[in-house]
Amino acid sequence: MTHVRDIMNRGLDHLTVDSSVADALACMHDEDIGAVPVCSADGRLQGMVTDRDVAMRLGESPFDPSSTNLSEVMTATEVVTIGADDDIAELVDTMTRHQLRRLPVIDGNEVIGVVSQADVAKNCDAGMVANMLAGISRP
51-60 vs 21-31: helix axis angle to the nearest 10? Predict the structure, then answer.
C-alpha cells in the first residue's frame, strides 16, 4: 500500500504568521505552487495561504504585500491535514470529504510537506483519481 509520504511534495518550506504576503508570493512563484503552510513561531500549523486568498483579499481592499502579514490573509479556520504514514485511500477520502485540492502533510506536530490532487493523479490508478475529482468538484 502506498502512503502519503511516498507521493507528497517534500522540502517545501513553511512560512510563519509574521511572514509577509510578498514572502508567500515569492515562495509560490519559486516553487511553482499555489499554497503554502503557515506556522506559528514554534512550528505548529496555523493555516494555509493560497494564491486565491491573496487575490480575494486584494479584491476587497488593496494592500502592500511587503508590509502585510500572512495572518491577515491566510485561511485560518481549522486546517485539515493528513498524516505522512496514512494510506492513499485515506488521503483521497479526506480530500473528497472536505472538497480540498491540497493538504498539508504532518508527521507528529511537524509539517513535512504538502500533497495535492495532481500528486494523486500522477501516482494512483484512474478509478481512484476519477472518484477523487468527482468528489472534490461536487456542488
Answer: 140
